[in-house]
Amino acid sequence: MLKILNTKLLIAILAVLAAIASAAIYQHHEAAKAAALLEQQQRDTERRRQEDEAFRKKVEENKKRHNSAAGNEGKTWKSYIP
């Protein structure tokens, strides 16, 4: 009778240890997924920031190019002879 009780107790202890181990493994896996997701978001944010900066530079270049023609507009209509 004592041997059966000891066996059942041992099985219960092993089941609890297995549950604790599986919970620890699951938590580690979820933490790794969260870290990978955070890293991906940081890369995406950095890429978007670089794209935004390139777009701003392009807009500034276009603005300078188009504004230079507007600065000479006054001279053209005054010297125009039909």
Automatic annotation (TrEMBL):
Q: Which UniProt keywords apply?
A: Signal
What residue stretch is flagged as signal peptide?
1-23
Q: Does the UniProt entry include the keyword Signal?
A: yes
Feature: compositional bias, Basic and acidic residues: 41-63
Q: Where is this region: Disordered?
A: 40-82
Q: What is this protein called?
A: Uncharacterized protein
The root-end lineage is: Bacteria, Pseudomonadati, Acidobacteriota, Terriglobia, Terriglobales
